[in-house]
Amino acid sequence: MTQPILQARGLVKRYGRVTAIDGADFDLLPGEVLAVVGDNGAGKSSLIKALSGALVPDNGEIKVDGEAVHFRGPLDARRSGIETVYQDLALAPALDIATNLFMGRERRLDGWRGQFLRTLDAKAMRAQAQQVLDELGINIKSITQLVETLSGGQRQAVAVARAAAFGTKVVIMDEPTAALGVAESAKVLELIGRIRDRGLPVVLISHNMPHVFEIADRVHVHRLGKRVALVKPGESTMNEVVGLLTGALRMGEDGVVEEVRNAVTTGLGSHRKSAE
Amino acid sequence: MRMATTANGTRASFGEYVLRTPAVGPTIALVVAVVVFSLSTSTFLDLDNLSLVVEQSLVVGTMALGQTLIILTAGIDLANAANTVLATLLMAKLVVGGAPAWLALIVGVAAATLIGALTGVLVINIKLPPFIVTLGLLTILTAVSRIYTSEGVQVSDPLLSWLGTRRYLFGGIEVTYGMTVALVMFLLVWYALNKTAWGKHVYAVGNEPEAARLSGINVQRTVIGVYVIAGLIYGIAAWQALGRVPNADPNAYQTANLDSITAVVIGGTSLFGGRGSVLGTLVGALIVTVLRSGLTQAGIDDLYQNVATGILVIAAVALDRFTRGRQR
Questions:
Q1: Secondary structure class of B245 (helix, strand, coil)
Q2: B143-153, pLDDT tens digit by residue?
Q3: In which domain, by residue range, is A66 found?
Q4: How many structural domains are present in chain B?
Q5: C-beta neighbour count of A233 within 10 angstroms
Q6: At A27, which CATH number?
Q7: Is the CB of A145 inside 8 Å of chain B's CB atoms?
Q8: Nearest Cβ partner of B196 from A74, A119, A150?
Q9: B327 to A149: CB separation less than 8 angstroms, yes or no
Q10: pTM for this one?
Q11: Which domain holds residue B286?
Q12: Which residues in chain B have Cβ-Cβ distances shorter than 8 Å to A86?
């Protein structure tokens, strides 16, 4: 079996009496788009925060390329090559695209000016930013345009481009299409596909089943703080996934999806049989 | 270059240009003011008078430089004049008490810097709004100054008044060392803000602190650094003040704080943080002084000058709101 790029085993995170992550497992394989779906409050965000270093789990293990890591903050995760596109994008609207792309990772000039005067190499940063946008097919008038002059989809593209430019192992995207219209969503999905085609695996957190089924190679179903199923879009239906994440269906050890007794009968299951 | 269109498919408009280059509007206003006063009075357009206007703008202009940095982080400093005044008192009293002038100068500048650091720590570590912190400091520092000395301290020392030294360029243009020092300070801050990562971080922290944090910027260190540097600048403003008038007075510079905020705001820096430039502040400080000086020479009463300055501030902030509103 291929070694997962990013893997978690038995993650636990408690806030007082609330258990946000309850022994969750996670596997991201090389070159895939893995969608993480779950109902509100299922603990998706907590899981993603643990993987991106934004929270420190109480228990469990995270491995990058098979090596155990201990993230104490988002910077640690970044150093391991994991980039995150946050739902609110984490862009400064009053600054231009190039500045935003290099925010916190600015490049200085070579030589004495960079070393002693700490002069930034604005030209190189702009050129590199332009190159990244071109490679990803993101069409923007000028790299020195202020982010606030961009449309929602363009902003999303800039945030995604930043992650793609600096991520060496994994790009995590939190609800990238949630705030977008139909046409802009389609462009972002296309962008996700292009990032995968460049060899960078993508973790996509989304509520939007059609989007998930359009782009994902595998779907991680999260419920009550843990992974309850791992399905492939080609082998399951959207209804089944919805059933799994609401708890109306469950997946047995053998990977067979079955209806849960005592739950309201939904008729969602395709291989309907009684549990136990 | 490759051709591409924006959302609305237009080229950068004049409005966008002004938004991108906040110093353009104020510069036009400054030129208009100078032309108007040159035409309406017989005394304004005169090299000596123009030099005097620049000299008069030095102390407030220097304070406004520190104020700009703080406002860029979405803060505000109500205590900068009180800080500067206390530093002038320290310098003057120490020299009058027999200390060497260089030591007095260092102590004064260091005290102003420390007060800046204290402001930053209160804002960041105790998470108090800058308005409240500096309002408290304004009250405290003003009281401390008056406890320290109830009346003005005359001081005649060549080092303390060095910035007031006059030189003549090209035979006719009168320049003081203070002007040169102020210009160098503006250039240094401009460089730091525009050409270094630190400057980009200052803008980012003021514009969107959460985005800055998620981008790996140390927000706390950046903001405290800004307050420390502003304090240092206020210390140098104190030196400027002694260069202009060799008398440290606890009751001096009563309107300087508001004037410094006025200069920053007229200069196009947004009170909401993250937008603005020191170039704008330089122009803003000159506008405030030109307006006061020109109106005086046109024979208009002080009180009406205050009315004019007030209108200018409101107009400048309204313009800021308007241009920002267009982008949302």
A1: coil
A2: 999 999 988 99
A3: 6-235
A4: 1
A5: 18
A6: 3.40.50.300
A7: yes
A8: A119
A9: yes
A10: 0.87
A11: 24-34+41-323
A12: 214
